[in-house]
Amino acid sequence: MLTELLAATVIAATAPGPHAHAHTHAGHEINEMQGPVLLETTYTGEVMSVADGGLRRGTRYLDNLDIVLEADLAALTGWRGAELHIYGLYNNGRSISDLAGDAQAVSNIETGKRKLRLYEAWIDQRFGEHVSLKAGRYDLNSEFDSLETAGLFVGSAHGIGTDIAQTGLNGPSIFPETSLAARLEVKPAQGWALRTAILDGAPGIGGDHGALLIGEAEAPMLGGRLLLGHWRYTARFDDHGGGRRRGNAGVYLRGEAPIGSGPTGELAGFFRVGTASGKLNMFDRFASAGLKLTSPWAEEDELGLAFATAFTARDYRAAFGGGKSETAVELTYRTPLADWFTIQPHVQYVRHPGADPTIGDAIVLGMRFEASFRLIN
């Protein structure tokens, strides 16, 4: 069946979408698909150099290959309200943070491990116009703690906050390791949404390590939107004093909104603040904010400036020493050279990499390119 569908496919080139955390996510709704089957491939390559400071100077080439298949099961099989989503991911495993020494990851396509993996595989079942239930292998950051404005930036902390990204035995269910999950979403009115999910507490690790529970409320704000979330693990974790305890939890608040438009383009802004348990995690507070300017002469040209600061917990400093924070400032510009090809030069300044006062402030230069193609039937 699939072979016949793809044989009749119309090939369309498309510019890649913004990164959610550390990957390109198609994120198409069924009613936005131009046919019952969509196949999208995106290759992201990036040359990054630590020009000064950090652990040592050097250059790395990082890459990321996304292959996404989506199918409207109502059109293909008669299964009303259902969408199938399968996502394969390859990454060469190179690391720039090994040179920069930072904790928040200056590149959101870094994995540290060369691997081809099944990244997502879920079915989304809709019940009417306002309720949907999604189940399968799932990237938490594809819907939770995600803003379109912040998706421009290369630094990982702008995809999902460092406060939650640092947690768990192998991170939460985000790039590059995901887990089985179930997500329920209710949209009671235009611009409003309530979503909650239960996920395996240790992606990529066998055995019973409890669950990660998360809930998020979305509300309209000044022409944009506001997100309020709470997350909690059910398992016990090692604390900084050598014991084990529950309570690995936190909250976050983030929002985005247009600021204004004029001869220089359209300006939008975003912010985020978040917390995590200081007895169980390196960082217990996080803050970020940024601006994105879309040029008036080309809708796809985007210029952005943002910062992200993670603050170390007092218990962590007492146990391991170190400084009070790490801050990354990023200046980036993204422009398409063709409908299917974009480039994105960027520079980042990392103050106190790894919150370690013995590591010099790092200047990281980068050039990213993305090539993306869609096949639609």
Compact summary:
Helix content is 7%, strand content 53%. The chain is mainly beta and 377 residues long.
Give a quick account of the main beta sheet: strands, pairing sense, barrel closure: 16 strands, antiparallel, barrel
Query: Unreliable stretches, pLDDT < 50, 5 or more residues?
Result: 1-31
Q: Name the overall outline.
A: globular
Counting DSSP E segments of at least 2 residues, the number of strands comes to 19
- Give the topology string: H per helix, E per strand: HEEEHEHEEHEEEEEEEEEEHEEE
Secondary structure elements and pairings:
Blueprint: H1 2-7, E1 10-13, E2 37-54, E3 58-72, H2 73-77, E4 82-91, H3 97-100, E5 115-127, E6 131-138, H4 162-165, E7 179-186, E8 193-200, E9 211-221, E10 224-233, E11 237-238, E12 244-245, E13 249-262, E14 265-275, E15 283-294, E16 302-312, H5 314-320, E17 325-338, E18 341-351, E19 360-376
Antiparallel strand pairs: 1-19, 2-3, 2-19, 3-4, 4-5, 5-6, 6-7, 7-8, 8-9, 9-10, 10-13, 11-12, 13-14, 14-15, 15-16, 16-17, 17-18, 18-19
Could you characterize what this model shows?
The protein is mainly β. It has one domain. It has 5 helices and 19 strands. The chain has helices at residues 2-7, 73-77, 97-100, 162-165, 314-320; strands at residues 10-13, 37-54, 58-72, 82-91, 115-127, 131-138, 179-186, 193-200, 211-221, 224-233, 237-238, 244-245, 249-262, 265-275, 283-294, 302-312, 325-338, 341-351, 360-376. The strands form 2 sheets. It has a 16-stranded antiparallel β-barrel with strand order 2-3-4-5-6-7-8-9-10-13-14-15-16-17-18-19. A two-stranded antiparallel ribbon has the order 11-12. Strand 7 (179-186) and strand 8 (193-200) form a beta hairpin. It is globular and about 60 Å long. It starts with a helix and ends with a strand. The model is unreliable at 1-31 (pLDDT under 50).
